[in-house]
Amino acid sequence: MAKPRLAVYKFASCDGCQLSLLDCEDELLAVAGQVEIANFAEASRAVSDGPYDLTLVEGSITTAHDAERIKEVRRQSRFLVTIGACATAGGIQALRNFQDVAEFARIVYARPDYIQTLATSTAIADHVPVDFELRGCPINKVQLLEVVASFLHGKRPVTPAHAVCVECKLRGVPCVIVARRVPCLGPVTHAGCGALCPAFNRGCYGCFGPTQAPNTEALAAHLLVMGMERDGVMRVFRSFNAAAPAFAKESRNHE
Amino acid sequence: MSSRTIQVNYLTRVEGEGSLHLRINGDKVEEARLKIFEPPRFFEAFLRGRDFREAPDITQRICGICPVAYLMSACHAMESICGVTVDGKLRELRRLLYCGEWIESHALHAFMLHTPDFLGYEDAVQMARDHPDLFRSALRLKKLGNTIMALLGGREIHPINIRVGGFYRVPSRRDLLALRDELHWARDFMPKVIDVMRGFPYPEFEQDYEFVCLSHPDEYPLNEGRLVSNKGIDVPISEYDRVLEEHQVEHSTSLHTRVAGRAAAHMGPLARYALNYELLHPAAKEAARRAGLGPVCVNPFQSILVRMVEIAYAIEEALRLIEVYEAPDSPAVAVEPRAGTGYGATEAPRGICYQRYTIDDAGLITDCKIVAPTSVNQAVIESDLLAFASTRTDLPDGRLQWQCEQAIRNYDPCISCSCHFLKLTVDRV
């Protein structure tokens, strides 16, 4: 039987999430043995046409050309999985969604007229149907392996949707809000990192995006009580998942 | 004699999106363009209005391959504005973190992206079928770099444990000593891999470059130094904007750079090696001798050998730093904002990552400039392509294309970084 065909595509991003695949040093050859790496430009000059059985998409849509390209990627893909905060929520570059992109281009480029870009940075799911979204900035490589293995075996990946708070409890990390009075987005942030920041004595900064039904309003109120200024509260919700609806709404409350 | 175009629409085994366009008329290469079409992400615009303490976390999102370079340059710039010096054990931990990034990034590029060109494979996985032991050891070396970064940074991609002023939590001496055995293995592995690589077929191609890098009186440059070149630059990094000029070209979303009044600058391993050879540890000099290198290397195809020398250096430096480490009393120096402009420049694996910030009294960023090494190297990559392809116009398109791709990979280009856009075409008229 032919091996399943894997493709990896990049849109606006830092490359970190697809690098996570190459960072699976202990598992890389095993994965390569199970699939045909049909299209993975960062790793191979052997690029073959679709269709593909599993396509991993990194990055957000920021140009008219990419908005068309993702449709063709979708047509060529049996399963399409987005990897990381850019593909899943627009990424840090979605900060443009809250301001004027023409002004942004003028700040960075002497000849903004050479630059073709959309006014917004948007998630892949805003453009085409997505079969599964993997969170994180960057993604957790153990979760990436879970996703690849699951699609190869026809099962749904198991990536818990609870908050980072639960991961702190599981890891035995004392609450940084309670014990250290450090502002933390753990109560409203999707699990996946294993409570990394709190384990290093810092507050979660939300790089896995909002969890299901996050009570951002209550957390924001508490951050204000802790002494954070309003614009500080706006900024903590406006970073790597700024355009995720729950975080976008909360940040607008503090403009 | 006919004209032809060689066009590679999507360069592979490089980080990010770019293309190559060559226009050849008979036996003359008329144009060589490295196009960067990576969509712009506007970091320098959206950093305005952010708190100065957010810069390390935000700027590292420019690049998943060399996040340490971005966050460290940001930290140094902010600390210089606020009048804070991070020294002693905290400075040494930063240096150790950077050793981790050099080992990981150099190993990734050399073994997984560049070696397949020399051995005639499309990719490292194909290569691994014929050279399984080499490949497994290469992955082990890469993993060592990642382990160092994860230990100090919390994770290898976009580490979370580094802040303006130091760290959030520092490791114990025991944590670091756990790295020693693997570093000793790596030290033993390097001569073996250098013996393999010195036998690679290197095209005869030497160029007269202006090498630009950092230089520090006491150490091979990672985090700090003056901006120097082999053609007379020797200034503090605050003079970067005066000696290296950025300009925009139509075919790239990445701004180009030239040395003021002159031509292209060449950054990265060849530059650091040529200008800092005497500061290498004896083991790294021995690695260079074993690789057949003199104290200066001007063949960009041999940059892979210089990367091995720098890995050997990073291994020795990591071992040295670990041996003398004692956990500092505090994980960070307190930093209070004050209005001003500051500069940070550190040596990413592929060259200098330069950043300039202005902040106000409240600590909010009012202006910034970030220059990725790949955006600087675009011009020298294009001049290499022109010179290299000109001697090889008799090759069939397929061969010529592959060799030109290899010439681009010599620079380990990190196109996502050049945050301001790459695509190959060969045009034979």
Q: How would you characterize the overall build of this protein?
A:
The complex is a heterodimer of chains A (255) and B (429). Helices cover 37% and strands 11% of the residues of chain A. Chain A contains twelve helices and five strands. Chain A has helices spanning 16-22, 28-34, 64-75, 85-89, 101-108, 141-152, 164-171, 176-180, 196-199, 216-225, 230-237, 245-252; strands at 5-10, 36-40, 52-58, 77-83, 132-134. The longest helix of chain A is centred in the first third of the chain and has 12 residues, at 64-75. The radius of gyration of chain A is 19 Å and the shape is globular. The model of chain A has no long low-confidence stretch (mean pLDDT 94). Chain B is built from 14 helices and 14 strands. Chain B has 429 residues and is α+β, with helices and mostly antiparallel strands. Chain B has one domain (3-428): Cytochrome-c3 Hydrogenase, chain B (Orthogonal Bundle), CATH 1.10.645.10. Classes of the chains: A alpha/beta (255), B alpha+beta (429). At the A-B interface, helix 1, helix 2, helix 5 and helix 9 of A face helix 1, helix 4, helix 5 and helix 6 of B.
For this structure, what is the CATH class of the largest domain in chain A?
Answer: Alpha Beta
Number of strands of chain B: 14
Helix/strand/pairing category of chain B: alpha+beta
Mean pLDDT of chain A: 94
- The tally of helices of chain A reads 12
CATH H level of the largest domain in chain A: which superfamily? NADH:ubiquinone oxidoreductase-like, 20kDa subunit
CATH class of chain B: Mainly Alpha
Summarize the model shown.
The complex is a heterodimer of chains A (255) and B (429). Chain A folds into 2 domains: 5-152, NADH:ubiquinone oxidoreductase-like, 20kDa subunit (Rossmann fold, 3-Layer(aba) Sandwich); 164-252, no CATH class. In chain A, helix 3 links the parallel strand 3 and strand 4 (77-83).
